[in-house]
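Following the same procedure, sequence and fold were stored together, as reproduced here.

>
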Amino acid sequence: MVKLNKIYTRTGDDGTTGLVDGSRVSKTNARLHAIGEVDETNSALGVALQTLAADEGETPLVAELRRIQNDLFDLGADIATPGESFEPSPMELRIVSSQVEWLEAAIDKANEQLPPLTSFILPGGSLPAAHMHMARAISRRAERALVAASLDVSINPQALNYINRLSDYLFVLCRLINSTRGGDIMWVPGASR
């Protein structure tokens, strides 16, 4: 259980921050960069989710997105936990294969409702899908940051799998959202030549 009585501690004034094991690293550390990108992904997803909820209300899809936001906090905690063992424990929160498998099942379920792609699509369409595309693009950046961190420190392979599947999920979700709002906007190669 997290309990925050005081928001500022001044411990980061020296340019460092604490990891789950109590060690301190520079705020420019690759691990912290990845955590920040995951946080930005979650924030962008929050905006997209609110746009969708304002449009549709509380739906099963909105509940899925809230689950993913929670998983992204789990992902941040996982990245902030140094070590070579990626087994979850009462003291170490780790992304597990069932979270990745849930995303894969959600991708498959959404994709079954869509026609096959015949072209790349442009980010946009409806406002909820445009916000979701932004979250998708940011999640790709988070994935790149996590891969970069994995070159320096041990990163849970399931964490890497999760962030990779997330952008796929968000892409399919954008298409699903647009399917009831006028459809995707297709890329027309060389259209403005």
